[in-house]
Amino acid sequence: MIQRFKSNGKFLLTGEYLVLKGATALALPLKFGQSMNVELLDKKENLIHWDAETPEGHWFSAVLDKNDFSVKNSDDIEKAERLSNILKQVKSLNNNTFSEANDFRFSCHLDFNSQWGLGSSSTLINNISEWANINPYQLLDFTFKGSGYDIACAKAEGPIFYEINNGPTTNNQPIVKTINFNPNFKNNLYFIYQGHKQNSGKEVKAFLDKKKNFDTEVKSISEISKILPELQTLSDFCYFIKIHEEIISTCLELKRLKKYFSDFEGEVKSLGAWGGDFFMAATEWEFDKVKKYFEGKGHNVIFKYKDIIY
Questions:
Q1: Quick check: 293 and 274 in contact, CB under 8 A?
Q2: I need a surface site. Which of 16, 25, 161, 178 has the fewest CB within 10 A?
Q3: Which of 209, 155, 151 has the alpha carbon at shortest distance from 25?
Q4: What's the pTM?
Q5: Same-domain pairing of 31 and 166
Q6: Residue 219 DSSP code
Q7: CATH number of the domain within which 42 lies
Q8: CA 187 to chain centroid
């Protein structure tokens, strides 16, 4: 018998960084995600066999001891040690996991390039949590940290509002609300990969180390998040995402992304950790012109809204 699990990737449309301070964020689950199959093997050698692949083919494999989760062998020791830590935390949250005498085989498949930052970690955490019947927010807190919006997106059936409720823990679940975000100008929205993956954990730590509460900014960003689903025109949408970028730019003491695309007719907005992963472009330009413009800047991975958003 094979158990099958699937979780969605994610985009954080609004609230990056300030979601950690309590801002209401607007998040979008993606058509891309990660599947995981779990199989009990006939062998009883106290082993866990782990295999993962991406659209490009083999990504990572490891064999772990089922009792203490030590790494027996792997083609990527760093990933294997990270996986070992995740499974130790899973066992601590549900001691009944891995109690069968049989060996296990986990087979994972990413729908996207692992460097794109679309949720390779969050989809894994959610899939494992579903299999182990544990709280995914708690497992995230014990492993990768972060706000948890990506966990909320993993099983969301559409766009959501996400808000931390005194921290995403077992006793303080985040506030997640499914919303109707289906802009009539969605054909004017594009998502472009910047070309390098950000270390979200590192960026989150750097932000939290600022030791500021950003109360005014949190309120403003929350208001923008709630306004965006109500907007009827692309021009209004561009107006508010520009304000959003200016607020976050001030908080981070970084230039907003539009500074690097000053001749682009429209607005561009960072998604998630600034400086890497994907960003959004909003423009009246046709797709061919958008594609030519950003490819000319060295950005060759470009998605239309309808091709990537759940």
A1: no
A2: 178
A3: 151
A4: 0.94
A5: yes
A6: H
A7: 3.30.230.10
A8: 23
